[in-house]
Every structure is written in C-alpha cells, then in structure tokens.
Specification:
Layout: H1 3-7, H2 12-48, H3 58-104, H4 119-127, H5 137-140, H6 150-158, H7 161-168, H8 170-181
Helix pairs in contact: 7-8
C-alpha cells in the first residue's frame, strides 16, 4: 500500500498555486476594507467639520480664534466632567465587586504551614518579650526526696502477696515454711 500517495493528494506546485490565489483574495478584501474606512472618515468629517473659510481682515481672524478657543474650552470641560464621572463609576463598581466578593466569602485563603513552636515561644509571641513566662511545669515543681520510713521498709520486705503465695507453692515453698516456723 502506498502511504505516500495517501499522505499528499495535492502536488506541491498545486498547493503553492492555491496559496497564492488565497493571498490575492485576502489582499483584495483588505484593500476594499481600507477604502471603505477612508470613505466613512471623509463622510464623517464632511458632516461634523464644515469647510473653514478664513476671513481676510485681522479683526475677523481674531474673532474666529476667540470663538474656536471658546469651543475648545467647552469640549475640555465636557471631557473633564466625563472623566470624573467615569472615575466615580469605576470606583463604585470596584467597591460593589469587593462587597460581593466579601459576602460570598470566596476569598482565597493562603495555605498555612504547620509551625512547631513551644508553649514558651507562643506566650512570648502573644504577650511580648517583656513578660517572662515559663511553661515548663516540671521546672516549676519542687523536687522532694523520699525518705525511707520504717513502715515503707516493712511493706517493701513483705512485698506483694502474690509473690509470697508463689514462693510457698510446691515442695520448695513448703520446705521454706517448715524452716521458718522451726
């Protein structure tokens, strides 16, 4: 079976010819769109910006300049007002989005690391370094030495009653019993 025949059914020259035709069509549409945009621009300018007729006298030129400056000032004021309104509205939108975000409670919680900290270190962190607190309870305990008393010695000598019974059981235990009684 011919794998190469199935792979490329169109020859290389045919592909290049089709590609060049597609590029020519695309170029024609781009040029057409550019011409349409230029025509729209000309019609808009003709509608909104009438032809400027310059007067010949100096006084008329000054009046025209004053009129143009007045119009520029009005446009600047409108632009400034629009910018302020836009800033206010964007701030309000941000505030409302933040409120919605807070109400939903879907703020991302940072992953917390497990920190090994002693109780002393925790108390120092909470109370500050001025307070000296020692949480080691064993250090706070007083150490008392046990003194051997006679009662405790007797109890230790007698020991556990189970041991006595085990010792007395069997022949060896009975022998010891007879020896201690005699």
């Amino acid at each position: 079976m011919g794998g190469e025949d199935e792979k490329s059914k169109i020859s290389h020259s045919r592909k290049q010819h089709l590609k060049s035709l597609m590029l020519q069509v695309a170029k024609g549409t781009l040029e057409k769109e550019a011409a349409e945009r230029a025509a729209e621009k000309q019609s808009y300018l003709a509608e909104h910006c009438p032809q400027l007729t310059l007067p010949h006298s100096m006084q008329e030129l000054q009046e025209l300049c004053k009129k143009l400056h007045g119009q520029i000032d009005e446009v600047d004021e409108e632009r400034y007002d629009m910018e302020i309104k836009l800033q206010k509205s964007t701030n309000e939108v941000e505030d409302l989005n933040q409120k919605i975000f807070d109400l939903r409670g879907k703020f991302k919680r940072p992953p917390l690391r497990r920190v090994r900290m002693s109780a002393d270190a925790m108390l120092r962190a909470l109370l500050g370094s001025k307070h000296k607190v020692n949480m080691e309870l064993r250090a706070n305990l007083k150490q008392v030495k046990k003194e051997d008393t006679d009662k405790e010695k007797d109890l230790r000598d007698v020991g556990d009653w189970r041991k006595n019974i085990e010792e007395k059981s069997g022949m060896e235990g009975r022998k010891k019993m007879f020896e201690t009684e005699a």
